[in-house]
Write a structure and sequence with these properties.
Elements lengths: L1 H12 L14 H11 L11 E3 L5 H7 L16 E3 L4 H13 L3 E5 L16 E5 L6 E4 L4 E5 L4 H11 L3 E2 L10 H6 L7 H4 L6 E7 L5 E2 L1 H11 L10 E8 L1 E2 L4 E8 L5 H11 L7 E10 L8 E10 L3 H11 L11 E3 L1 H8 L20 E9 L5 H14 L3 E6 L22 E9 L4 H17 L25 H4 L2 H12 L19 H23 L1
Parallel strand pairs: 2-4, 3-4
Antiparallel strand pairs: 1-2, 5-6, 6-10, 7-11, 8-9, 8-10, 12-14, 12-15, 13-14, 13-17, 16-18, 17-18
The structure holds flavin-adenine dinucleotide and 2-acetamido-2-deoxy-beta-D-glucopyranose (4 copies).
Length: 543
């Protein structure tokens, strides 16, 4: 074990001689292509791997996975190249050639980043688009799934459904979200209270590091493996795949979606919801969606509250649970629909009852202009303050809120287990959301200001010092206050980053800094940490 550790440390210093080079003689453009040709198998057809703006399919490939129209304007800077690897080795070549040509790299899987960080940049850049690498292999004997980064959640759920009606995976609700970004950033869905996050079920991963090496769990080492379970993939390398542990789901689950309005005492309902969800049966998830709505017949705008639920069990059991814990909601048997878990995925994506399961394989998601923000709530908001919130929501007219309950399994996993730190003590997470249809900077400004105003309004009611946020709900307003995303885990992420990518090649507007690019104090801390580690290894080795 000690020898292995020592070897690991030595490996970190061993940088293989750079096999690629970007010759200085010609333009960057020719160099990059040249580098790619030189480092790819001659049998590989580069016309389906490397795209420049002169290629006819460049624009359609670029736009296929732009999921936020804010970043699809004539002014938006376009990539010098788009690389669409067909094999893992192409990913290595892309990393090495991008690095040696001094370009910046953006990695895109599903393209759902709320701030477009997987496909925009202020400096000349390359998009490494993973959509061709999307193989999925579900193994029911082992109860695992090997999933490549370019797959979407819908494809994963579909491949599980093909093989088993009693297995599922706890990940996001929208089927078009990509594995690469979603899982490296945490990943939660409506089984969070029963099974925790996606990152709580990773058994292996493949990653291309800054030197183009393809690593797996054992060759990347415990720390790097830990880092890509919620620390944000784009900080440490290119995730090629995750191997996931499937979870058990019953053959029949129950869902409901009920709407309540002011006349239904929504304040009392939401107030009560805040108190019961932490401890309630972990098979139950009830999301609360708050939206200002203006009635068709011109009444005043008012807040509509939708309770959407997944219960991992039958309707009778759910009704009796609700009657004892949350009778105020007035849930009726007729509100409840029993179905398979896979059908519940469609229900949650707002598909009509009896839609064919293969819609999960549809990778298209109709983009809008949008902005999202997030918050964590650690103590219930009072009825009075909820009333003020309803007033604020109707005044602003547009942004909506989604409350996602925690508790259950989330209380049992330590904040240090993965980089995702928002576990025990959080009652629920808030997602702020606003979408619009008008193009232009004025519209962007107008709507972004509204969501910021709502976020400011919520300050007294949410976590503080630091006010926390969910990495996968990317929000550039946070700047580089990384502790909001990672709390105490940030320091460890910096240490790992500094070891595996000291030159800070894998970077974006919110990436984890490497010590080289960090302040003096951090450098000092890092030096001390590193010396300690080295001493530890050497000492132990002497024994
Ligand atoms: C409609 C919608 C619904 C959503 N629902 C949920 C939900 O239910 N639960 C939830 O937890 N989140 C949800 N999200 C947020 C989602 O998890 C994140 O946006 C996630 O990062 C998207 O992953 P992606 O691969 O689609 O995005 P991308 O934009 O491709 O990537 C996001 C980030 O990850 C990096 N990245 C992508 N692929 C790789 C890779 N292979 N290796 C290394 N880094 C990589 C990118 O560079 C970027 O920084 C939702 C988002 C949207 C737009
Ligand atoms: C794409 O552009 C490159 C560089 O301009 C060119 O060499 C190549 O032939 C083009 N490929 C296709 C398929 O048009
Ligand atoms: C709302 O609350 C009041 C007072 O607690 C109660 O009398 C009334 O029946 C409630 N209305 C509904 C629709 O539950
Ligand atoms: C779907 O709709 C049909 C016809 O209305 C109904 O019989 C069936 O029970 C529904 N299934 C679910 C799961 O709601
Ligand atoms: C896929 O989804 C998109 C967006 O919802 C839709 O417009 C399109 O028709 C769907 N394609 C198929 C083949 O169902």
């Amino acid at each position: 074990m000690i020898m292995v550790r020592l070897l690991f440390f030595l490996l970190l210093f061993y940088q293989p001689k750079f096999p690629t080079s970007c010759s200085q003689k010609t333009t960057t453009n020719e160099n990059f292509i040249h580098c790619f040709i030189k480092n790819t198998n001659p049998d590989d057809d580069l016309s389906h791997i490397v795209y420049t703006s002169t290629n006819s399919s460049y624009a359609s490939i670029l736009q296929a996975y732009i999921k936020n129209l804010r970043f699809n304007t004539p002014k938006t800077r376009k990539p010098e190249y788009i690389i669409t690897p067909l094999k893992k080795s192409h990913v290595s070549t892309a990393v090495l050639c991008t690095k040696s040509c001094g370009l910046s790299l953006r990695i895109r899987s599903g393209g759902h980043d709320f701030e477009g960080l997987s496909y925009i940049s202020d400096i000349p850049f390359v998009i490494l688009d993973m959509f061709n690498l999307r193989a999925i292999d579900v193994n029911i004997d082992k109860q695992t799934a090997y999933v490549e980064a370019g797959a979407i959640l819908g494809e994963l759920y579909y491949r599980i459904w093909e093989k088993s009606k009693v297995h599922g995976f706890p990940a996001g609700i929208c089927p078009t979200v990509g594995i690469g970004g979603h899982i490296s950033g945490g990943g939660y869905g409506n089984m969070i209270r029963k099974y925790g996050l996606s990152v709580d079920h990773i058994v292996d991963a493949e990653l291309v590091d800054v030197n183009g090496r393809i690593l797996d769990k054992s060759s990347m080492g415990e720390d790097l493996f830990w880092a890509i379970k919620g620390g944000g993939g784009a900080n440490f390398g290119v995730v090629l795949s995750y191997t996931l542990d499937l979870v058990y789901v019953p053959e029949r689950v129950t869902v409901f979606r009920v709407m309540r309005f002011a006349k239904d005492n929504v304040t009392k309902l939401v107030y009560k919801w805040q108190h019961i969800m932490e401890d309630i049966d972990e098979n139950l998830f009830i999301r609360v969606v708050l939206q200002p709505v203006t009635p068709k017949h011109n009444g005043p705008t008012a807040v509509r509250v939708t309770f959407i639920s997944l219960f991992l069990g039958g309707a009778e059991k759910l009704i009796s649970l609700m009657n004892s814990e949350f009778p105020e909601l007035g849930l009726q048997k007729s509100d409840c629909l029993e179905m398979s878990w896979a059908q519940s995925v469609l229900f949650w994506s707002n598909y009509e009852n009896e839609t064919a399961m293969n819609v999960l394989l549809n990778r298209t998601y109709n983009a809008a202009y949008s902005k999202r923000k997030s918050d964590y709530v650690t103590k219930p908001i009072s009825e009075n303050d909820l009333e003020l919130l309803w007033k604020k929501l109707t005044e602003l007219e547009k942004p909506g809120l989604v409350f996602n309950p925690y508790g259950g399994k989330m209380r049992e996993v330590s904040d240090l287990e993965t980089p995702f730190p928002h576990r025990n003590g959080n009652l629920y997470k808030i997602q702020y959301s606003i979408s619009w249809k008008e193009a232009g900077e004025n519209a962007d400004k107008k709507y972004i200001n509204k969501i910021r105003e709502l976020h400011d309004f919520m300050t007294p009611y949410v976590s503080n010092s630091p006010r926390r946020a969910y990495l996968n709900y990317r929000d550039v307003d946070i700047g580089v206050t990384h502790k909001k995303y990672f709390k105490g885990n940030f320091d460890k992420l910096v240490k790992i980053k500094s070891i595996v990518d000291a030159e800070n090649f894998f970077r974006n507007e919110q990436s984890i800094p490497a010590i080289k690019s960090a302040g003096k104090k951090q450098k000092m801390e890092y030096a001390i940490y590193f010396t300690k580690c080295l001493c530890l290894v050497l000492n132990l080795n002497l024994w």
